[in-house]
């Protein structure tokens, strides 16, 4: 896994990365299920409203709350973007 961009406190960043890896491994062939798992657990742990996009070859521009964004790559080309915006 490679972090491309992060704007999160260290403890939250580590937990979020671990969650992303777990979800992507558990649902290796189903990005939608992995994203749903990440979103539901982030909402539960850090409050709503979290958003998650998982896929290959996408660009994005999002408005997010300060200290609530993580963009990482998993397994080479799979990108995971997690952000909070209420």
What features would you describe in this structure?
The chain is of the alpha+beta class and 86 residues long. It has two helices and four strands. It has one domain (2-85): Protein Inhibitor Of Neuronal Nitric Oxide Synthase (2-Layer Sandwich). The chain is 38% helix and 29% strand. The protein has a four-stranded antiparallel beta sheet with strand order 1-3-4-2, covered by helices on one side. Helix 1 (10-26) runs antiparallel to helix 2 (31-46). The chain is globular, with a radius of gyration of 12 Å. The model has no long low-confidence stretch (mean pLDDT 89).
What does the largest sheet look like? 4 strands, antiparallel
The run of helices and strands is: EHHEEE
Principal-axis shape: globular
CATH class: Alpha Beta
How far the N terminus sits from the C terminus, by CA atoms, comes to 28 Å
Radius of gyration, in Å, reads 12 Å
Structural class: alpha+beta
Which fold name fills CATH's third level, the topology? Protein Inhibitor Of Neuronal Nitric Oxide Synthase
Count, helices: 2
List the helices and strands and how they pair.
Blueprint (H helix, E strand, L loop, with lengths): L1 E6 L2 H17 L4 H16 L3 E6 L13 E6 L3 E7 L2
Antiparallel strand pairs: 1-3, 2-4, 3-4
List keywords for this structure.
alpha+beta, 4-stranded antiparallel beta sheet, 2 helices, globular, 86 residues, Protein Inhibitor Of Neuronal Nitric Oxide Synthase
């Amino acid at each position: 896994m490679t972090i491309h961009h992060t704007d999160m406190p260290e403890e939250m960043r580590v937990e979020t990365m671990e969650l992303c890896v777990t979800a992507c491994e558990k649902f290796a062939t189903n990005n939608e299920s992995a994203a749903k798992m990440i979103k539901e657990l982030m909402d539960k742990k850090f409050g709503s409203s979290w958003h998650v996009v998982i896929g290959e070859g996408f660009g994005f521009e999002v408005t997010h709350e300060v200290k609530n964004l993580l963009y990482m790559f998993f397994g080479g080309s799979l990108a995971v973007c997690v952000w909070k915006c209420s």
